[in-house]
Every structure is written in C-alpha cells, then in structure tokens.
Write a structure and sequence with these properties.
By secondary structure, the chain is α+β, with helices and mostly antiparallel strands. 32% of the residues lie in helices and 23% in strands. Helix 3 runs antiparallel to helix 4.
Amino acid sequence: MTRQPWRVAVVGGGIAGLAAAVRLRDRAPAGTEITVYEQSGALGGKLRTGELAGQPVEFGAESFLMRDPTGAESAAVALARRLGLAERIVHPTVGQAALVVDGGLRPIPGGTLVGVPGDLDRVATVARPAVDADTDGGRPLVGPDADVSVGALVRSRFGDEVVDRLVDPMLGGVYAGRADDLSLVTTMPALARAARVEHTLVGAVRAAQAAAPRAPGTPVFGTLVGGLSTLVEAAVTASGATIRRDAAVRELTATDTGWRLTVGPTRDPEFVDVDAVVLAVPARPAARLLASPAPAVAAGVGALDYASVALVTMALPQPRLPELSGFLVPSTEGLLIKAATFFTTKWGHLRRPDGLAVVRASVGRYGEEAQLQRPDADLAATVHRELSAVLGTPLPAPVDGHVQRWGGALPQYAPGHADRLAAARTALRAAHPTVALAGAGYDGVGIPVCVRSGETAAEEIITALGGSAR
C-alpha cells in the first residue's frame, strides 16, 4: 500500500479536474495532498463567466442538464449541492428555440431526440421525411457491438432533409461537428441502446424516450445565478487542493513509487514526485504525456480530433427580438453563424429594466476553421449582419461586445470511439493503474458528463492506491 499521506496530481484545471479534486478530498484518506496543475492562468476550462455591459455573461458553457439519462439528478446538480450552490440554480424562462429554414425562423418541433423524430408528422414544418424508408427489416437497426455515424443511420431511414435541417444543426450546436461524422454510441447513447433492439428508427426513438421519461413541466436545463464560474470557485475551495496556475506538465515518467512530473519551461524544469495522476486534459496533451510510459494507449487516445469555435457576444440597446431562447442554423443555409442564444430572453434572472439585451452567437464548424481566422471585429460585424438578416430587422449597434475563441474545444467522436477508449483504459489500468483519464475527450461533452468523468477517475485512483479510508 502506498505510504501516507497520498500525493495526487490532477493535470488540468477544468471542471473535470476540479470535480476529481473534490472527490479525492471527500473520499481519500485525511491528509492526502492534492495538487492541480493548470497550464493556463484560468481555472474552469470551458466554464468562464465574464462581464458585459455591467453584468455577468457566460463566455463558455452556458448551462447544464438537470437530469442524467436514468432520470436521477445529474452529476452537475449533485456537485452544486455538495458545494452549497443548489439554491443558486435557476432555469430558462423561455424554452422554445427555432431553426433557420430558407432564411427564416421556424420553431423547432417537439418530440425529437436531438433532432431525430419519434413522430414524422411533427417535423413536417421544417423537413420532409423520406416516405416508407423506415421499414421493419426483421432485425435490429444496429448490431450488438456495432457503431455507426448518426447521419448514416438517420439518412437511411428518414432521408436527407431530416438530417440536414434538424439533426445536423442540433448536433452541430453541441459538438460543432457533422452528423455524418459523429458516433451514434457516444453522442446519442440512449438511441444506440434502443437501436440494438428495435427494428425501426421511429421505434428506437420512442423506446429511448420512454426509457428516460420526464414529468411535464420539469426543467431540462439549469445554470447558476452569478455565473458558472461560481461552481469553479466553490470546487477549488472545497477541494483544498494546491492550485498551480501557468504550470505546464511536460513529461510524465514512471518511478519505483509512482510518478515524476516535469513541470515548467525546458530551461528551468521542476520535478515533482507523486503517487498517482489524474489526466484531466484533452486527448492530444494526454497522449503526449503517455507516449513514454504507455505508447499504445497514447496512440489510441491521441487519434481524437477536435473542432474550434468562437463565441461572439453583444449587448444591444432595446432590440426587437422574438420570444425565443435562440435558434440553430443548418449548414445548408450558408451562414457563418451556427447558433444564437438570446440570453436576456432565455434567462429571466438576466433581464434588465433598461431593455438592454445580451445576444451570443456561435461561429465555427468542424472543417471550416479558416473562417475563424478573421479578426474579432470582422467576426462581430458578420454576426451582427447575419442576425439582422435572420430576424428580418436591423439590429441596433452594440454598446459592448466580446469575442471568445475556443481553439480545439469540442471533441469529434468518430464511430468506434467508445470501443477505442475502452481498450485504451483497459490497457492503462493493467499497466499503470495509478493514472486515470478524465474529461470531455473521453466520456462526452457537457458539464454533468465531465463532472462524472472526473469523479470516476478519482475513485479509480483511490482504489488503485489501496482503497478509501473514509
């Protein structure tokens, strides 16, 4: 058993790494030394609350799911409760969003699963499903161990318009990727499970929806009054961890008693010995650190690609906005914008008596990174022009604005990702059980998934070091 007190390094100060640090503090033996190494100067990863026109505004992730796929409270809600923030959770006051279709706004139809309909008649206002393609072939849609792209499955059953006008923009809003490239198993696990039993896609969607029923009126999303950075700050405090900002971990070397981290610049490196490591960094940095101690694992992990996005936020004086939470834009519309959120309409706690509205647009699709090379002013001007065109009315000039660029932010899970990751983790546990992977690059996007990923990694470390003492 490793000597006490344990020394655990968490590499990466995003929400997955911080959730791991909190779980280590809660479950590891008293006195465990936890150090979080963050390459940048900012903690929280894609959780970043800034300020615009005198009020808090999210420059990264905006909200979290309230429930997990089983219907229980999500890991994000549980963490907020653990950190004493449950009373700060608020929900959207406007939930209806729209799609841009033929240059205009149409309400997103209900009854879909990430755009995949369980009732074809309900989506007829935005897309024409293929006729008689979703037939019962006498066997499940997907084999027991198979994975396919979401686009391939839905196109074969419902036709191109359902994918291009519904599924692709909804997946694009989350992943900045294409339905034809994204894994069904990783991005839509509930549908994948149902598709291994059901013979039609309509049947699979309905089965997936029935497996996770939601009571009418129950909120789907939540956020925190004061911004999501309050979750980050509270996690740092609760973890009791030593926080090392601007501390790049460049090498990871196995020792007789654990691991040696090489931290900082090559000309003046710092060497730190620890008993275990949580790697809560994106796939490619993790692969670089694992290249020496676990080259096969590094090769499997490092194959994951990422998309970059930019978020353009504007404060507009008394604009004429529809009573919508926002809208999504299919790539077939030819716009730079792929999604927009009307913050001060969607979230009642952000509404201002002076009528100033905060609008945020997301720019950047996988494979179109060249569009993000434009200067900030150019991006902002293009977004303002496109928003005006979609809304059918000129928007007033912004009184404040911000462009947040997230380079390599969103994982692109190709079919087979889950199997590749499982194989990599199995090999890593067998060879080096005191190293665990956590974060969006492995388990999926979204705050609850990242929190759960970090907590699971912490539990694995505790087990590997000899079990929890409390």
